[in-house]
Design goal:
ARM-like; about 70% helix
Length: about 500
């Protein structure tokens, strides 16, 4: 995850600026890796009550003749109930991949289904949409592309009056979007962004959640940074529409905040930020403030409830904050100061404890945010010390090597602020802690420990001598290049004595 460790053990001088530069390069590489980790998925919306009413029938693979007969009855049946039953039977069959393949190979099958989708009979429309939804859930891209003739109608129905029907159309579009670039190429000129922007004002939570899903699928497309997100004078692209402002409104903490809706749109915001198209715009629209307040609200919530779903929202919120703090615009508009230093740090440590006990895999996310908060902010480093948070931070070193590297990086951020900060770090618990980390076999942890030692030696004249007296070098003799390390320690000691 981190690179360039071998260079830390050279015997030549190494200043604070060079150390800072190396660390920022490694952090940039890590951010890039995290941006490339997308969460592409498909969702299947089925009405449980309807499934039970239909007797939970076993899915039967349909052949060409059966499909053709169901389509004929749905199109030309003498009674509406008969036509509806035919579509229900077809929908059940389309739950099987083999039936889906047979269906799209039949000439005119999609055209017939689209015709039923556009009929003036609501029940037939609904069942035809459910059939398309089953097709959209297919893992075969050919099946998704076969649904292309229906996309313009699905978009049109987003402005309808039935929230259930709109929800179904949104999930179907979301499934199709993620499957095929051909689908996205067709949807963009058809006006999917303005259609979604109109939907986001819906009062129905189920619609908003489905909308968040569809939008997140669109934003994860590989061509999104160039063709979907960029600012423009037209509202056909995301940053040129009202979507960002509405997303931030839906993430405002308070009694109206809905967890399911917030989770979907927090990921949408994450994908927009990761595109790095125009994060300055988001910051000027108040993204940092909104996310900071939401972080405080989540920290309070995890103390009140055992609800295991909160981590689903905490993760994208923390990632959004972490990435926005790396932007130059964050400093221009007040950056970390918008986040109310001590309150944010206290909230973040509450969440770190929550992660530690409930979701350890999210600890690196919280520590990455702490790293970005402290990287260029002496006030946050001061708050860490004044709130006595160094000791809880050190306790996290035993969790894993990945966590250890991030904890040590935060400590480096503090140490590089100068002698006054180093006085609060050294020796205390840090000296025995570093002796332990230097004895580990993980080169990443050892490398970051050495980097912290270098900063301490530069700023604390007595640190090198204290380290030697505590037999720190003995803990390092199992590592390669120990002779070079000894030269480095003595060189740093001389720098501290004469500097």
């Amino acid at each position: 995850m981190w690179s360039g460790r071998r260079g830390l053990l050279r015997s030549s001088g190494c200043g604070v600026e060079e150390l800072r530069c190396r660390r920022r390069e490694r952090e940039a590489a890590l951010r890039k890796a995290r941006r490339e980790q997308q969460l592409v998925s498909k969702r299947l919306l089925r009405d449980e009550a309807t499934e039970e009413a239909e007797g939970g029938c076993v899915v039967v693979i349909l052949g060409e003749a059966e499909i053709q007969e169901f389509l004929r009855l749905a199109q030309r049946g003498t009674e509406e109930k008969e036509r509806e039953r035919a579509l229900v039977s077809l929908r059940r069959g389309l739950q099987h991949p083999e039936t889906q393949q047979t269906f799209i190979r039949l000439e005119g099958s999609i055209r017939t289904l689209v015709g039923l989708l556009t009929s003036n009979q609501a029940l037939l429309q609904l069942e035809a949409a459910r059939c398309l939804h089953e097709l959209s859930h297919s893992e075969q891209s050919a099946v998704a592309e076969a649904c292309l003739p229906a996309t313009s109608y699905l978009l049109t129905y987003l402005s309808g009056h039935s929230s259930d029907f709109i929800e179904l159309c949104l999930y179907t579009l979301g499934n199709l979007i993620v499957e095929s670039e051909a689908v996205r190429r067709q949807l963009l000129p058809q006006g999917i962004v303005p259609a979604l922007a109109a939907c986001i004002q819906s009062p129905h939570l189920t619609v908003l959640e489905a909308l968040g899903y569809a939008l997140s699928q669109l934003l994860q497309a590989k061509e999104a940074p160039e063709k979907i997100i960029p600012s423009a004078s037209t509202d056909s692209l995301v940053l040129g529409s009202t979507l960002p402002q509405h997303i931030l409104q839906l993430l405002q903490p308070g009694p109206k905040l809905n967890l399911g809706v917030a989770v979907e749109f927090a990921w949408c915001l994450h994908y927009i930020i990761c595109s790095q198209v125009n994060n300055a715009l988001l910051i000027t629209q108040g993204a940092l403030t909104t996310l900071g307040l939401l972080l405080l609200d989540l920290a309070a919530a995890v103390q009140r409830t055992e609800d295991a779903g909160l981590e689903l929202l905490v993760c994208p919120v923390v990632r959004c904050l972490s990435n926005l703090l790396t932007e130059a615009a964050a400093e221009t508009v007040g950056g970390p100061m918008q986040l109310r230093d001590e309150r944010v740090l206290a909230a973040l440590f509450i969440l770190l404890q929550f992660f530690l006990h409930k979701q350890p895999s999210l600890l690196p996310e919280g520590l990455w945010l702490l790293n970005n908060l402290t990287a260029n902010s002496p006030s946050f480093c001061t708050s860490l010390i004044s709130l006595d948070l160094i000791e809880p931070l050190l306790h996290l070193l035993s969790v894993s090597n990945v966590v250890s590297v991030l904890v040590l990086t935060v400590l480096c951020n503090i140490a590089e602020k100068g002698p006054a900060y180093c006085q609060h770090l050294w020796p205390g618990l840090l000296l025995p802690t570093l002796l332990d980390t230097l004895a580990l076999s993980d080169t990443e942890v050892v490398g970051q420990s050495l980097e912290l030692l270098q900063l301490l030696f530069l700023y604390q004249p007595g640190a090198a001598q204290a380290f030697l007296q505590q037999s720190g070098l003995q803990a390092l003799q199992r590592h390669e290049e120990v002779a070079q390390l000894q030269d480095r320690v003595h060189a740093l000691q001389q720098t501290a004595l004469h500097g």
